[in-house]
Amino acid sequence: MPPPPKASAPKPKAQPPKPAVSTGSSGAGMSALLSKVEAVGKKKDLEEAKEIEDIDLSQIDPSAAREKVTCPRCEKEVLKEHFESHMTAHSSEILPWLFLGGKRNLENDKELTVRTNITHVLNLAQEVNLKEDFRIIATEYNLERGLPFVYKKFSFGDTPDQHILPELDSAVQFIHDARSLSQQHHVLVNCVQGISRSASVVIAYLMKYEHMHLREAYDHVRERRTVADPRKEFVDQLAQFECQIFGLDKPSLTGAIAFEGRTLLNLDDPLPQSERDCEEGAEVQNTVPAAPKAGTDVVIEEDILNKLSGHAIESREWYADANPANSPTKTAVDVDGKATTTILDSQTVDVTVPDQS
Ligand SMILES: [Zn+2]
Predict the structure, then answer these.
(1) What pTM was estimated for this model as a whole?
(2) 205 CA distance to ligand 1 middle (Å)
(3) Residues 254 and 106 both lie in one domain
């Protein structure tokens, strides 16, 4: 019997920002801001460390290697076997100025400012908004450095019927414009977990402006963010985008090829689609069954956790939510339809009970 899901501690609120920070000075304003960022960052780090690393394996396997490595981003010592999952809690550096991550990276002052120096945020998740506290701190921080803070949102759902193709040009243009204006500009592309929607847009950017073919861009992103995994329907739309950009008849990758041989949990029809031609406007096939309604009997501990034990899940298709558009990847609604359970990695579960007010 695997351990029950841990209920996450209440998220610490960001410190209320100080009203005025003088612009252009490198003195008191910035140092006050940095100490504020430091304090909030410390809380966030502690909270994420609890989620990810506070799993004592010694009771399961006393001989388990306890070798630790230092995280290059937060300088925290983490167990070597947890290093990969630790790194996915940070945003991932896709290019030296282009970062891919999740909501938690948008809501960690320290990550957003001193660690990655983000000046531009491209949020692709319809259910995520940049909270005012974080916007103010990031704006103040960048103002002190003589840089802007720009936020742009595209409301994509992580659903099989989400058409991202019509918006891809505008989305990648935002990234390109940000970078074209100044080499000091750093861009964070995020969705909820930095897995599907945001990864798709970063891949599209690499195709259009780094001239990578889809296969290369897909591999590039997945090598740098191991959890990145655009859903099959998005890969097919990226394939159409590739054909448009490079004038190809056939893409270098399709959803069917990307997902070939994968075990899709709870997916009735995992047969790979035949390779699709790049017909513009071709219907993207929906092979994902409709998500069950909230309250559906999803036995998290015994069902999903057993399937997850010992290996990272490769599919998001098992989630259950009354409104799939509101369902981040790897999420299930529990049996009474109230708590949302997010599988962070093979061993960590984050249970959130939404505010009922
Ligand atoms: Zn770290």
Answers:
(1) 0.64
(2) 26
(3) yes
